[in-house]
Amino acid sequence: MAKLALIGIAAALAAPHVLARVHTGAAPGGAVSAFGAVWVANDTAGTLARIDPRTNRVTRRVRLRPGVFSVARGFGALWVVNYKRNALTRVDPRSGRVRSVQVGAVPFDVLAAHGRVWVTAWAAGRLVEVDPRSLKVVRRIRIGPRPTGLHAAGGALWVGFGRSATAIARVEPATRKIERIVHVDPAKRRVVGTLSFGRTLAQGSLAPDGTLWIPDKEQNLVYRVDPAKARVVDSFPAGPGAFFALRAHGSMWVTSYAGDEVWRFRPSGP
Questions:
Q1: Which of 216, 70, 239, 251 is nearest to 147 (CA)?
Q2: Which of 45, 46, 103, 230 has minimal Cβ neighbours within 10 Å of its Cβ?
Q3: How far apart are CA 211 and CA 214, in angstroms?
């Protein structure tokens, strides 16, 4: 019995298996699962690449402009921000046709939720609300310095901030009321724990086994974190500049921002 327990622990700590390394274009950043595929925004290449999860091959590259960074799905389209052109672009996943709108200085993240497309404008300090049908800016909300990541949970929008920020913002979509919260449980709106590790942590994702995968861009690693016990389980290589983790099609996908690949993993763990 003790021997079986040791084998189980060793298996739990074993690094996930790399299923494929897919060349998508220079500096892959954000990614999304949509319309039967994985779509990757390639910053330096200026493309949006479609990966077929059945073959692990790129089947289409939509040519945009260098500076594409984050991508989201919603309202029958893909939405891509370009921080060099200060633009939000709507991409038709079938035809590849594109339309763009100016949203403000240095857009960082994009989210389709609550009937709108939302963009954080990092340098402008705004949360930009866009009508997905007319592609017109509805309003620019003063949200605070250097807004970054976006998330929808608990009937609200949640906005992260860069640099030395110590709080996040909760935005009520109907009233646009803003509430500042020091890091946070979405329901209780309070801190539930803290954990320090790594050097330059990027965009994480929840894996099928319940662990959080957190890429470390500086160390070229992914950390696996047990959120229930607030502890780091292990770490493993995930390509140069490991940046964005995505759960999709029974796998975990990690973009290599300092390279030109997306690594596909078969997840394993506790």
A1: 70
A2: 230
A3: 10
DSSP string over 53-88:
TTTTEEEEEEE--TTEEEEEEETTEEEEEETTTTEE
Q: What is the pLDDT along the chain (270 residues), one digit of tens a residue?
A: 334 433 443 445 577 999 999 999 999 999 999 999 999 999 999 999 999 999 999 999 999 999 999 999 999 999 999 999 999 999 999 999 999 999 999 999 999 999 999 999 999 999 999 999 999 999 999 999 999 999 999 999 999 998 777 789 999 999 999 998 875 555 555 555 677 888 888 999 999 999 999 999 999 999 999 988 889 999 999 999 999 999 999 999 999 999 999 999 998 744
Rounded Cα distance between 82 and 66, Å, is 8
CB-based contacts of 197, cutoff 8 Å, min separation 6: 223, 225, 232
Number of residues that this document lists for the chain: 270
Beta strands 107-113; 98-102: pairing state: unpaired
Identify which of 122, 91, 93, 118 has the alpha carbon closest to the alpha carbon of residue 106.
122
